[in-house]
Amino acid sequence: MWGINSTAGTSSAVPSPQFSYEDLGLTLKATPQVHGKTISMEYELLLRSLGATQVNGLPLITNREMKGTISTEDGEAVVIAGLIDKSETAAINGIPLLSMLPVLGNAFATTTKEHDSDELLVVVTPHITSARNKSGSYVPIPMNVPK
Asked: In Å, how far from its chain's centre is CA 38?
């Protein structure tokens, strides 16, 4: 029982739970540069997620990061793809001791293998939304957006 121990003359407090908040999910940072009607982007893609559980019961946080440069025309879609996770699982089920026999063991056991891979696809469609006039100030380009 947790609480104050009155028989020993000392007090023991209930341990207070501790929390740690972590940002999880997908973060995409892009720095575009416009070259006429072509747009080039330096990007950094970060994926943080919960992984396997440690011995003490706390989950591991996995970090995946991709960096690169892409270029495309105004309004054209670009796909950023990457393999996120790849795993292989093997299991042997059978009758104990008989499945371990060197020659006849396969008759008393079944072997299963699983291959799993997860891939992330991010589609980015850049648009040029303003242009410079000769004096260097920005002039907005009207877009066909209903009000």
From this structure: 30
For 114-123, write each residue's pLDDT tens digit: 998 888 888 9
Q: Please state, in angstroms and rounded to a whole number, the distance separating the CA atoms of residues 70 and 72.
A: 7
pTM of the model as a whole: 0.55
Residue that has been written with the tokens 């040029």 in this structure? 128
Beta-strand relationship, 59-73 and 38-53: antiparallel
Helices (H), the chain: none
* Share in percent of the chain as helix, strand, coil (round to 5): 5, 55, 40
DSSP string, the chain: --S---SSS---PPPPP-------EEEEEEEEEEETTEEEEEEEEEEEEEEEE-TTSPEEEEEEEEEEEEEEETT--EEEEEEEEEEEEEEEEE-TTGGG-TTTGGGGEEEEEEEEEEEEEEEE-----EEE-TTS-EEEPP-----
Average pLDDT, the chain: 80
What residues are paired with 135 via a beta bridge? none
Across the chain, how many H-helices and E-strands are there?
A: 0, 7
